[in-house]
Amino acid sequence: MEQNLLIYNSLTRRKEVFRPLHPPFVGMYVCGPTVYGDAHLGHARPAITFDIVFRYLRHLGYKVRYVRNITDVGHLEHDADEGEDKIAKKARLEQLEPMEVAQYYTNRYHDAMAALNVLPPSIEPHATGHIIEQIELVREILDNGYAYVSNGSVYFDVEKYNHDHHYGILSGRNLDDIINNSRELAGTDEKHNQADFALWKKAQPEHIMRWPSPWSDGFPGWHCECTAMGRKYLGSHFDIHGGGMDLIFPHHECEIAQAVASQGDEMVHYWIHNNMITINGQKMGKSLGNFITLPEFFTGTHEKLERAYSPMTIRFFILQAHYRSTVDFSNEALQAAEKGLERLLDAYQTLQTIAANLSAYGAASAQPVTMDYVQDLRQKCYDAMNDDFATPNVISLLFDAARVINSVADRKMAISSEVLKALTDVFDLFAFDLLGLKKANSSGNSGDNSAREEAFGHVVDMLLEQRMKAKAAKDWATSDLIRDRLAELGFEVKDTKDGFTWKLNKQ
After folding, report:
1. Is the pLDDT of residue 454 over 80?
2. CA–CA gap between residue 43 and residue 37 (Å, rounded)
3. Which residues are CB-neighbours of 318 under 8 A, at least 6 positions away?
4. Do the Cβ atoms of 201 and 155 come closer than 8 Å?
5. pLDDT of the residue at 206
6. How far apart are CA 264 and CA 311, in angstroms?
7. How far apart are CA 151 and CA 146, in angstroms?
8. pLDDT tens by residue, 51-75
9. Coil, strand, or helix at residue 8?
10. Could you give phi then psi for residue 151, rounded to 5 degrees?
11. pLDDT more than 70, % of the chain
12. What is the dihedral of CA 88, 92, 97, 100, to 10 degrees?
């Protein structure tokens, strides 16, 4: 189906029709984690946001190369050019090799992403695996006159670049003011101006992570890796660069400057940024110490959590807000998301129940669900996705469909097999394929878990069939006993005209 996809471009500050540079191929680069600790809720948001972009572009027929990096060197404390490497600091404190720390938390990140049903990227390059490319990038910028060497380190000359181009094109900052204000600090350190940023840092004697370069034994500046790896895997011009809004300045501003300074023009066509997750109005982040890790959410082990929340609850919570809006964490919001997700999954399960006994849901006296309704629902869901990936609108439309499904289950509406299949297809496509929700309430992923849950379901059905027989025989004591014992185990049983329905409530 032809779709006219609009994407909000942070560079132009408006929605634009998505037109790939080399259709049907699409190149997308997204800034990944710095692996010195467990991923938190703030890391889940960009992962889920760009998972939606990835899924939808592929659904539209594009061949997407999705690159998401692992930062395992060069990211200094407080995102500055001084201080200790975050991974090296963690390694020193725990008496480990830096790569041991990076590998451990990379594995943990992958586990968390799998639990959230985030698809893996096409390529996941590590900064330490691309030192040569970063050195070459620095050399090109030096050769073009936009950087200088100082005591073995290399710095980007923001004043020179800003004179010839525009430093601040993405963030909207006026760098002339910053440069003028920083002049009085000139000469106090290696930089010509405080606005200059490191391309290569000479390693101090105690610094563990270091590589040889033409300028010194050292390590690349944080901003270099994405420019170098984006160009290596997606070319000198590619379609989409994404990340959190907090990366617009300085990281992505510096990336644009590095690209222009090295090759003469910009690399990226569309810049996409998700907004922040906050706690009491303050950005959630490791540096602020106000974060809750994803494993803590899944186990309920953080003091701010009233209980554990499943990965699908976290995913649904994030998708209920548009990716460019701020989301504030609270237990109440998560519990509301949990109920909303359960409502959608229950509606889908009701579709399966209706399909298994369709003849009972086609009463001539009931208003029918029409194919026109389902086709309109499908198109409205597409319209929402095409409007800058408006997942809250898709969810709202699916909630409306859930009301129709429940009306059919209550015999207030009728449905034919053709319409039922079409409605099921809409749920399969938008709820599961595109929003990435899982059909099972359980967060388990293994086939063994699925088989075990199916077996449990058969046992519950068998018990409830015995209860129906007891009711038919007016053996109310046995009927009530089966219902009450199942309720104690968390099963909610509802009697219907055709028998019964049940579900397992979350504990």
Report:
1. no
2. 11
3. 44, 45, 48, 49, 277, 327
4. no
5. 87
6. 44
7. 17
8. 999 999 999 999 999 999 999 998 8
9. strand
10. 55, 40
11. 90
12. -70
Task: Give the Cβ contact number of residue 389 at 10 Å.
Answer: 25
Strands 63-68 and 147-150: unpaired
Two structure tokens written together for 254? 């510096």
Question: What are the strands, taking DSSP E only, across 336-476?
Answer: 367-368, 413-414
Class of domain 6-15+23-274: alpha beta
What distance in Å separates the CA atoms of residue 182 and residue 34, rounded to the nearest whole number? 29
Q: Tens digit of pLDDT for each residue in 316-335? A: 999 999 999 999 999 999 99
Cβ distance 419 to 377 under 8 Å?
Answer: no
Peptide bond into 220 cis (omega under 30): no
Tell me how many degrees the CA angle 55-378-9 measures, rounded to the nearest 5.
45
d(CA 253, CA 156): 12
Cα–Cα dist 505/242, whole Å? 37
- DSSP H or E stretch at residue 502: strand 499-504
What are the boundaries of each domain within the chain? 6-15+23-274, 311-434, 447-504
The answer to whether 220 touches 199, Cβ cutoff 8 Å, is yes
Three-state secondary structure of 433-453: HHCCCCCCCCCCCCHHHHHHH
pTM: 0.87
**Residue 92 class from Cβ within 10 Å (0-12 exposed, 13-18 middle, 19+ buried)?**
middle
Take residue 18 and report the two structure tokens written for it: 């998505």
